[in-house]
Queue: 2 jobs
Job 1
Amino acid sequence: MVYPSTGRSGNQMRTLNEIGYLSRDRGRANPIRIHRLLLQDHLASPSDTNAPLDERATAYLAANCSHCHRPGYLRIDMDLRHGVALKDRALVDTKAEVPTATPQSRRIDLANPEHSEIHHRMTRLEPGVRMPLIGSHRVDEAGARLVLDWIKQLAQDSGPGAGGTKTPTTR
C-alpha cells in the first residue's frame, strides 16, 4: 500500500502495528496469526494487469470471500484464503452444496467455465444466491470478469479439452 501523505509504501498491518493502532494486548486474537499477517507480502491488486491472472483472481477471492469461505466457519469445505494451494481449496470440479446455476453445478466447472457456481453467484443479486451474501447491492462486473477469466485459464491449463488430465498448478 502507498500512503498518499508520505509517498511511502508498506504492509498495512505492519504499519498499523508500528504506529500503535494494534495494541500488544490482543485479547482473544491469535498472536501467531497476527505475526504472520504483519510479515505477509501484499496481495496482488485485481486491477493490476502486470500481475499474473491467478494471483489477481485469488487475491480478489481472498479479500472478498475468505472471511466466510475458510476452514471452521461454514459447513462447507471451500477455502479461499490467500496462500492456500488450489488443490486444497476444494473448488475445481467439486459439486456445489446448494447449486443455483444448474442442478449439477460445480464450484469451478472446467468443462463449462460460464456455469461455474462461484462465477454465477458473483453475477446475481437475488437474496440467498448472491455472493457475498451481506453488503453486496450490485454486481462487481470487473471482479466477476476477473474470476471468469481465471476459471477459463484453469480450463486451458488442465490439458486438451476442458476437464483434461493435467492438474492446474495455480494457487
Job 2
Amino acid sequence: MTASKRIWTATIIFAMCCPILQAQVIYVDETKLVNNAYDIVEGTVINIDIRWDDDHSLINTYVTMKIDSAYKNIIKENEIVIKVIGGQLDGFITAAPHMPQYELNENVLVFLQKDDITYRTYGLSQGKFKRITHDGIMYLERIVDIDNLLILDNTVDSNGIINRYEYPLLKNTIQSNLVNIK
C-alpha cells in the first residue's frame, strides 16, 4: 500500500470513528430569558439588510423592527436594528448555528441584548418568538434545535421544552417574571 493510500485509509477510518461535532447552545428557560434580557420587545420586521462587515470577512443580517411594545421599557425608540450573524450575499453564504431567522413583515416578540448601536437576540433562536394564529388562537412560536441544546439544569427534560405558547400565557409569564426582578 502506498503512503498516500495509507493516509486516505487512516483519514476515512478516523472520520468514521469520530462523531461529527455540532454546535451546542445552552438552554435558557423563560425565567432566564426575562431576567437576563436587556429588554423584551414586540413588533414587526419592516426591513432586512444583508451586508459584509468592515473587513469583508463575515456577512451579517440587520433586521429593522418597528416596536409596538417594550416590556422592560428600556427601549424608547420606535424602531431598532437587530444584528444577526450570517446571511447570503454576492454568491457567498455565512451561517452560524442557532441564529434566529427573521422574515419581512413578520410579527415577533424578541428578548434582546444590547451591543454598541445594535441589538442582538438574547438566547439566539430561543429568544425569538413569531406570532402565529392557528384555529383562531394566537400563539407565540420559536424554532429551536432541541437536539443540540446543552441542558445544564437536571430538572429540565428536552421533552418538556415548550416552543409554542398561547399568546396570553407567554405574556403573563413575562409579566410575572418582571414583577419578581423589580
